[in-house]
Design brief:
The chain has 599 residues and is of the alpha/beta class. The chain contains 24 helices and 24 strands. The strands form 8 sheets. The chain has a 9-stranded mixed sheet with strand order 3-1-4-5-8-9-12-11-10, sandwiched between helices. Strands 22-23-24 form a 3-stranded parallel sheet. Strands 2-13 form a two-stranded antiparallel ribbon. It is globular, with a radius of gyration of 23 Å.
Length: 599
Amino acid sequence: MQPADLQKSFLPTTRAEILARGWDRPDIVLITGDAYVDHPSFGISLIGRWLSHHGYRVAILPQPYHLDARSFKALPPPRLFCGITSGNLDSIVANYTGNGKVRDQDAYSPGGNPYFGEERLKKERRRPDRATIRYTALAREAWPGVPIILGGLEASLRRFIHFDYQQERLRSSVLTDAKADLVVYGMGEWSVLEIARRLDRNLPLTDIAGTCEKLTEREFAERQKLSPSMILPSWDEIARDPRQFMVAEQDIDRACRAGSNKPLSQAQKSLFLWQNSPAAPLTPPELDQLYSLPFQRRPHPATPDVPAWRMIRDSITIVRGCSGNCSFCAITRHQGPLVISRSVDSITREVREVAATDFFQGTISDLGGPTANLYGTSCAIGGCPKQDCFFPKLCKNLSPNEDRFLALLERCSEIPGVKHIHISSGLRMELLLTTHRLLGKIIRDHLPGTMKIAPEHTDPEVLRLMHKPGGHLIREFLNTCRKIASQAGKEIRFTPYFIASHPGCTEQHMAHLAAEIKQLGISVRQFQDFTPTPGTLATAMYVSGLDRDTGKPIPVAKNELERRKQRQVLEGITLGKDKKSPGRKKHLPRASWKTRKAT
C-alpha cells in the first residue's frame, strides 16, 4: 500500500511524479480526453481512486497529444493494462453540436479551450474525434503487448453497431474498430477490478461480467455452444435494412432494463461482438465507500482552471441509476435502471468535506444525480423485468421515501458553514406531485433561483415517442408549485427544457408546443435540436424512421432546413422576443446537467 500522505495526494500524471512515489512503473495507466480533476463527478477519478484503494499503482494521462505517441512514451509502460476513456462525454458530443457544427468551448479542458495551447497547435483539438479509437492506436505504438481496456461513456454506448451523427453513418462496435482487448460497459468498478486481478495472476480475460469481447467466427461458434447468447441483427442485416437497427436497439434496451444475465452477440464486419452479463451494481454501502475515498476535489495543479470543475465543485452526487427510460436518454443504458442511493451519513460526511475546502462559499450547489428526487426510491415488489417506472404513468410499485430525503436536507443544512442547499439536478414532476412535503420544502428553501424541469414537449404524440407522460402533467405541476409558492409568500420561476426535431415531431407539433408554452406562462430558456447520440431508442427511430412502439413509419427531420424550421418556432418565443431578434436562444449540450452525472 502507498504511504498515507501519498494516498491523499493526486494520482501521478508524469514520469517524475511516478518516480517520486518510489515506483519504477505503474500497474495501470488510465488515459482520458478530459483534464484531470480529482473529483468524484469525473469517471476517471472514480476508477483511479477505486483501483488505488484496492492496492494498485495507478497513473493518469490526461488529454495526451494525439498526433503522435510522444505523450504515451513519456510514461513508463504499465505492468498490467492501459485503460482508455474519451472522458465524461462522448468525444463527438464534446466536439460537435447536434447539427454537426464544431464547438468552440470545451468545459472539460483547461480554461474551456478545446485546442492545445502552443501557437503552432492552435488548430489541433485536445480531444480527438472518436478519442477511444485514436488513443488505442497510440497506446499500441507506445506500449506493444500491453492489454488495452476501453471504458467510460463513449465506449459503453458505442459497444454495439451504432450511429455516428458527425459522420452521418453507422459504425461497427468501438471494440472492433479500435482493436482493443475489452470494453467495460456501464459504471465499471467491479469489472476493472476483476480485470486487474486476473492480469495480476496471468488469467484469461474471458467471461468477465460487465465486459464485451471480440471473437472470431470459430471462437463465437464455440462460445455459443457453451452459453447460448441472444443474437442481435448483424452488420450485413442492418446495412441491407435499417429497420433491423431498431430491432437490435430494442433487444439491447430490454436486456439492459431486465438486468438479463443472458449474453448478447452481434456480428460485425469481420468479427463478433460478445457482451457478457452485466456486472452487479454497487450496493449502497459500497457506493458510500467509493465516495469516501481521498479525492482532492479539485483539478490537478498542472491545469487548475477547468470550467466543468467550477460547475460541480460544490455539488454532491446522492443517487446513481435511473428508471425513467426516456427514448432520447442513455443514462439507463450506461448507469443502469436500478436506483442506488447513498446513505444520509455518507452524504453529510461529504458535505462537511466540501464545507472545509478553501473554495467553498457557503452554498452546496446541488444534491442530485441523473434525477435528484429518485433518491431513496425503491420498488414495492422488489424489481421487475420492465424497470420502466414512469410510462405511460407513474408505476404504483415505485415507492418514494419522502422522509429520508427531508432528513437529508435537514442534516446537511445543519452543517457549520453551510448557508444554502440547492437542488439543481433535474426533477421528475410526476414523482414530486406524490411527495407534497418534499415539493414544498424544495420550493421554500432549496431552489437555486429557478426550478429545473424537463417536460421536453407538450404534444401527446411526440411525448409518447419520447416515452414521457402526457402533456397534462406540466400544467398540473406548474399550478401546484405556484400554489405552494404563493402560500409561502415566494415567487417561483421555472427553467423548462425542450427538444425540437425529435423523431416523429413536425412543425405542426412545434406550433402546438409554442401555443401551450404561452398558455402555461413560462419562458423558453433551454432547448436544442434532437441529437442522435449512440445508445438510445430515439436514435434508432432517427435512423430507421420507425415508431418505437408500433413499427410504423414516422416523419424524421434530418436535414438542416427541416431542423431549423422546428427550432425557429421556439426561437420566436424565447424570452418573449420575435424570431428575428439576435441573442435569443441558449443551446446547451444534453450533458450540461444530466449526462455529467452519468459518468
